[in-house]
Structure formats: structure tokens, C-alpha cells
Amino acid sequence: MSMCLTEIMPASGLWNGIMSFDDAVYECVSGFISDGMTRFMKIVTFLGSEWAITFLALIIPALVFILRKKEYYRPGLLISANIAFGALFNQILKLIFRRPRPELFRLTEATGYSFPSGHAMNSVIFYGFIAYLLVRHGRHRSKYLFAGIIAAMVLLIGLSRIYLGVHYASDVLAGFVLGAGWLIIAARISGRFLNG
Hints:
The chain is mainly alpha-helical. It is 75% helix and 0% strand.
């Protein structure tokens, strides 16, 4: 699976380690390949797609304004602004690293560069921020259950990208780490904005 990477990267201990990690994870994940699992993973991966996240990022603040829930105006706008800037940051990183996507064993089509995974990074930034707001400002006890479901969904989105053969495991791991870093910063900024 990492053959295309070896063609553009010089052999080194670091890259050999990364490629070994990528191959080991894919070998494990590919053991679950079946028609039913592939259909499920395509649904999961759609939840982290640009289309799905953009739709949700627009509809959430729109509903807040339509329903005139003034106490949610700021959180609604923050959700949209957070993912807009986060997704832009992801695209900048892709242009910097320019890592080609895997060429072998693809179960779906994907375009653009591979590192870091946009699905993984943007899912952490978008869904993770919603989970943060839910836990931080929600009043119902079920908020922790919903936050847990969101976390599991984000992990599945990342896993789906490896399963479908459109990302290396290191792309997804980097997306999660970078997304988490962005999320921490966004949480701090939003805390001042919402409490101000």
C-alpha cells in the first residue's frame, strides 16, 4: 500500500517506520473487508465529507436564527466559523506536504493530496467542537452520552478512510492529532467569546 510513497520519498528510518505502521494497520483493517462492511464504511465516511460537514455547518446556525433561539446565536456562528478556518488550514497543510494518496486496494474514489486526512481532521474540528459545546454548556445529563457517540463516530470516520483505501493510517492519525490541537485552541477562544 505504501509503494507509491517509496517512489517519491528517500528511504530513511523515519519513513520506513511510517510505512511499516501504515502497512500494519491496513493489513489489520483489510481483514474485515466485505460487501456489507464496505457499504457501511461508505456511509460513515460520508458523515465526514466536505458535503456533509458544510451542510451541517450552514444548517445549524440557520435553524438557530429561524427558531430565534437567541442564547444559541453565538455558539451557532462559532460552529460555522470554526470549521471554515479549520478546513482551510487542512488544505494549506495538504499543499505543503503534497503526499499522494494510496493507489492500491481503493474501494471508493478520492481526489487531492493525502496528508493529513481532511475527513479525520475536519471531523475532530467540527463534531468535536459540537461535543465540547454540548458538554460545556448543555444542561441535560444525556450530554455525556451524546458526546461519547460523537467521539465514536469521529473514530469510525477516520477508520473508514483507511478501510476504503484512500488514506494511509499515518494520514488519519495526523488528522486526529492536528484536529485535536485545533480543537483545544478553538475551545479556549470560544470560552472567552461565549463568556464575554
